[in-house]
Every structure is written in C-alpha cells, then in structure tokens.
Specification:
- The protein is an alpha+beta fold and 115 residues long.
- The protein contains 3 helices and 7 strands.
- It has a single domain, classed as Nuclear Transport Factor 2, Chain: A (Roll), CATH 3.10.450.
- Strands 1, 2, 3, 4, 5, 6 and 7 form a 7-stranded mixed beta sheet that branches.
- Helix 1 runs antiparallel to helix 2 and helix 2 packs across helix 3.
Length: 115
C-alpha cells in the first residue's frame, strides 16, 4: 500500500525539510501517533518524534516486514528497524486509521526492543 510505504519513507528521511514534506503529505493536520514510548498529536509533534527517533537510532532504517493488510479505513503492518540489509534491532506492529487518503491515527506496538 503506497500510503504506508510513504509513511515509512518519512521515518527514514533524514533531511528535515524533505521529512516534513512527507509528514504533511501522509498525515491529516490533527493526526495522532501513540506507541508504548510516545503519544503525540499534530504534524509538528509527529515530525519532532520522527527526528528524535532518528537521533536515537542513527543509520538504521524502517522497512516493511511483510504485506500491508488493509480494509475499509484501516491498515495494519509489521515493520523492522535495523541496519540496511541486516537483522532488525526493533520489531513493531502498527495499525493506521485512514481518513480521506491520509493517516489520521497510528496505534503502534513494540514486539521486540533492545535490552
């Protein structure tokens, strides 16, 4: 699903202006993101969260770990975070709520995190 691929591209884009353009493209203005470590609302906070995650895990990339399962206004997918082409360090599972072709909400779960 292209929307989810673009969503992950935003998490991988280090250039702040390019990343913000992807956030604006993918998210509704009042979008929310929640996982066990973060709860943010609005594009500014989502963009800041992505930047903070990039600083915490420099050089690592997010990638889909399988197909996106989508129906109605929902999409669920598993993702990996790790060095390019290597075993993931973090494994997660997200459920996205889509409104008018943009992500309105992401509910994130962490299946595997570093000790």
């Amino acid at each position: 699903m292209e929307l989810i691929e673009t969503y992950l591209a935003a998490w991988n884009t280090a250039d702040p202006a390019a990343r913000r353009a992807l956030v604006d493209e993918v998210w509704t203005a009042d979008g929310t993101y929640t996982d066990p470590l973060a709860a943010v609302a609005g594009r500014d906070q989502i963009d800041a969260l992505i930047g903070a995650v990039q600083q915490q895990f420099p050089g690592l990339e997010f990638r889909l770990a399988g197909p996106v399962d989508a129906h109605h206004d929902l999409a669920r997918f598993t993702w990996h975070l790790g060095p390019p082409g290597a075993e993931p360090i973090v494994v997660g599972f997200d459920v996205a709520v889509i409104v008018d072709g943009r992500i309105a909400t992401v509910h994130g779960f962490l299946d595997r995190v570093p000790a």
